[in-house]
Structure formats: structure tokens, C-alpha cells
């Protein structure tokens, strides 16, 4: 019986650990909104170290802060990412059996970057593992308590700050992680560090796809990702607080038409923002409903990266060009509605309602026609086809 009780206690501990890790995993993939503000780098360091000491109260962190620059950052997310690197370094040194586990946090100014560097005296990372450690669920720790989401999360946060994450390590000689943030100059006009860049937001409920879209956009010299969201409600709220030029909008998120409902809200509140639907839906009804929100473009997922980037650039310049299939669907719907004397929402014209006799306000019914107003003259070059 004693053995059974011991097994039951162990199973209970494992279940509790699994629930904690599930909660952490859920928060990691769910909370993706980034709000960038000017933050003193000393404040970022202080917040990260405070988080670290919340987990390891007695462990000192050696600090070497060589600049007082401001950085453009989401303090909560970025301090959590730096803390994650500090925790990983400390745990690696303990796991390696070091008598004095050490972690060092350095900050230095480079010409176009502000660099935060975390170094440990752990066992280092073998070359064959260095290309894999940023993937989700990859870990060298006890998987009952660690599921390998830490470095994946760090990389995602750094990329959302338009930054770079580098690793320098030799097996047996510790590891050095560098977070490189773009130079922020508060004297420069505007809210962002890079002039004449296209500010893009991404709304996509599938985390890996959302990250891929952000990576593609961030890699362009003329674009930056200023925010991402996993739901229509979240992107609508984000658009109220963070200026942007183009939103890549999925349609089916928390509901089947969440992106369409969010686009209606955003275009009403922020008509200057260009909505570009990026979705797997190709049905005529979905296309016409989406374009009816005031969106400027509609792109089907799976297109080549260069083609998607060209759509973003055209949308930002106000010269969006629908793909032939999408354009044909829209025009067919327009022709169908013209024939039935209905006008689609996305091509709304100011027309009064029909009066009791069928004629529209301000028009008389044509002789010999019952219940119908004058038909419009055909488009130049021919009637409906």
C-alpha cells in the first residue's frame, strides 16, 4: 500500500506540473499583442532581473549596462524574454554541476543596434543542436517540467520587435545569447524608427502561420510588423491603439467570419487603414462579403511570398490590384445585382427606396412597366454579359 500511495503522490505531482505547463503553453501561444513604446534600457534590465529573482531569489545576476539609450519595446513581453534567457543560463549551469553558477547580463550600444547579451557558465550547446533549440517542444531538460517553449517564445518576441536573436556557444564553454534591437532615435519624427516603412499588422489565429507571416514581413527593408493578434476582437482593439498602414486579415478566427466583422469595425473607425484579406476561403459568397467591408484586396493563402509582399506594397500605396479570379467574382456579383436592380454594399450608391408604385424616389414609373423603375443605361461598350 505504501508503494501505491507513493505512486499516487508522484502521479498527482506530475498532473499538477502538466497543468502548470499547459497554462504556460496556452499563455505563450495566446497572448501575442505587442504594443511598442519608448522604454529606457535600464528599466528593461531592471524588470527582467526582477522577474528572474522572483523565480531564483538568492541567485545574483552580474550586470554590465554600458548605455542609457531608449529602446522601442513592449516592456512586459521583452522583459519576460530576457528573463527567460537568464533562467535558461542559470539552470544550464546548475545542471552542469558548476560550483558557482553564473549569469551575466550586458547591454551595449552598437551603430544601428542596442544589444542585450546574456552569458552563462553552463556546458554550452553542441553545434548539431544549435539550429533546433528555437523550435517549439525542443528541450534538453526534464520534460515533465519543461516542454521546450522558452526559446521559441524568446525568438517570437524578439522578431515582433523587429530585432534579431543570435547564439554564440562552444560545447563545454557556456552560451551567449544576443538580443539585437533596432536603434531608436526619439528625435526622429514619427512613431517608428525606420522612415518610410509600411507598418503592418497580422491577424491570424494559427500561431505558426501568424509567426511565418510576421517573419516574411519583418525581413523586408521597407516593412515592419507593429502588432499581431489571434482574433478579430483583438485586432480591432489593437488598431485603436497602434498606428498601422496595412492589416493582413484572416477571415475565420474565433468565429467563421470574425475577420469580416473586425474589418467592418476597423474601416469605420480608421478609414486610412488598408485591409488585405489573407485567407483560405475562395467561395464567391465569402469574397463578396469580405470586399463589402471596404477592404482593398483579397489574397488566398499559399501564394508565393513575393506576390504577397507586392500586394502589401500596392495596398499601402493605394493602388491595390485584385487577382483576376477575385476581380471576376466581384464583377459577376455586381452584374448579377444590377440585373436584379440591387446594389451590393461594397459598391453602394445613394439611391432612394422604391415608392409604393415601384418607382424609386424622385423617379416616375416607366409607361408599360409595373412594379419596376427605369433600368440604368448599359455600361459604355456594351450591356451586361
Can you put this structure into words, describing what you see?
With 385 residues, this protein is an alpha/beta fold. Helix content is 39%, strand content 18%. The chain is built from eleven helices and twelve strands. It has a five-stranded mixed beta sheet, covered by helices on one side. It has a five-stranded parallel beta sheet with strand order 9-8-10-11-12, with helices on both faces. It has a two-stranded antiparallel ribbon with strand order 1-3. Helix 6 links the parallel strand 8 and strand 9. Helix 7 (232-241) packs parallel to helix 8 (258-269). The termini are far apart. The relative contact order is 0.07. Mean pLDDT is 78; it is low at 140-149, 189-195 and 349-385.
**If you average the pLDDT, what whole number results?**
78
Task: Output the radius of gyration.
Answer: 28 Å
Largest sheet: 5 strands, mixed
Molecular shape? globular
List the helices and strands and how they pair.
Layout: H1 2-30, E1 37-40, H2 41-55, E2 62-65, E3 70-73, H3 75-95, E4 103-109, E5 113-120, H4 127-130, H5 150-160, E6 164-169, E7 175-182, E8 198-203, H6 207-218, E9 223-229, H7 232-241, E10 246-249, H8 258-269, E11 274-279, H9 284-291, E12 297-300, H10 305-316, H11 324-339
Parallel strand pairs: 2-4, 8-9, 8-10, 10-11, 11-12
Antiparallel strand pairs: 1-3, 4-5, 5-7, 6-7
Helix pairs in contact: 2-3, 3-5, 7-8, 9-11
Amino acid at each position: 500500500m505504501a508503494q501505491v500511495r507513493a505512486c499516487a503522490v508522484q502521479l498527482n505531482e506530475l498532473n499538477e506540473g502538466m497543468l502548470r505547463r499547459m497554462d504556460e503553453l496556452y499563455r505563450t501561444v495566446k497572448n501575442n499583442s505587442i504594443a511598442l513604446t519608448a522604454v529606457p534600457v535600464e528599466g528593461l534590465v531592471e524588470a527582467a532581473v526582477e522577474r528572474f529573482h522572483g523565480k531564483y531569489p538568492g541567485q545574483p545576476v552580474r550586470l554590465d549596462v554600458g548605455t542609457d539609450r531608449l529602446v522601442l519595446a513592449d516592456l512586459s513581453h521583452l522583459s519576460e524574454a530576457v528573463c527567460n534567457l537568464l533562467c535558461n543560463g542559470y539552470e544550464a549551469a546548475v545542471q552542469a554541476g558548476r560550483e558557482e553558477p553564473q549569469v551575466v547580463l550586458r547591454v551595449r550600444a552598437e551603430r544601428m543596434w542596442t544589444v542585450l547579451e546574456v552569458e552563462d557558465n553552463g556546458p554550452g550547446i553542441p553545434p548539431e543542436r544549435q539550429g533546433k533549440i528555437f523550435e517549439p517542444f525542443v528541450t534538453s531538460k526534464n520534460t515533465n517540467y519543461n516542454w521546450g517553449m522558452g526559446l521559441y517564445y524568446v525568438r517570437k518576441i524578439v522578431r515582433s520587435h523587429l530585432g534579431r536573436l543570435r547564439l554564440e556557444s562552444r560545447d563545454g564553454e557556456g552560451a551567449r545569447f544576443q538580443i539585437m534591437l533596432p536603434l531608436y532615435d526619439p528625435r526622429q519624427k514619427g512613431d517608428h524608427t525606420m522612415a518610410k516603412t509600411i507598418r503592418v499588422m497580422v491577424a491570424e489565429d494559427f500561431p505558426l502561420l501568424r509567426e511565418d507571416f510576421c517573419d516574411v514581413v519583418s525581413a523586408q527593408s521597407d516593412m515592419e510588423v507593429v502588432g499581431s493578434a489571434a482574433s478579430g476582437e483583438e485586432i480591432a482593439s489593437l488598431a485603436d491603439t497602434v498606428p498601422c498602414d496595412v492589416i493582413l486579415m484572416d477571415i475565420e478566427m474565433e468565429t467563421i467570419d470574425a475577420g469580416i466583422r473586425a474589418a467592418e469595425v476597423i474601416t469605420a473607425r480608421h478609414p486610412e487603414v488598408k485591409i488585405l484579406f489573407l485567407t483560405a476561403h475562395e467561395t464567391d459568397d465569402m469574397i463578396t462579403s469580405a470586399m463589402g467591408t471596404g477592404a482593398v484586396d483579397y489574397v488566398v493563402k499559399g501564394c508565393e511570398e513575393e506576390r504577397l509582399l507586392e500586394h502589401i506594397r500596392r495596398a499601402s500605396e493605394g493602388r491595390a490590384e485584385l487577382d483576376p479570379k477575385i476581380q471576376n467574382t466581384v464583377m459577376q456579383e455586381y452584374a448579377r445585382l444590377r440585373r436584379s436592380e440591387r446594389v451590393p454594399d461594397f459598391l453602394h450608391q445613394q439611391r432612394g427606396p422604391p415608392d409604393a408604385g415601384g418607382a424609386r424616389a424622385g423617379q416616375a414609373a416607366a409607361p408599360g412597366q409595373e412594379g419596376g423603375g427605369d433600368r440604368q443605361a448599359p455600361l459604355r461598350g456594351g450591356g451586361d454579359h
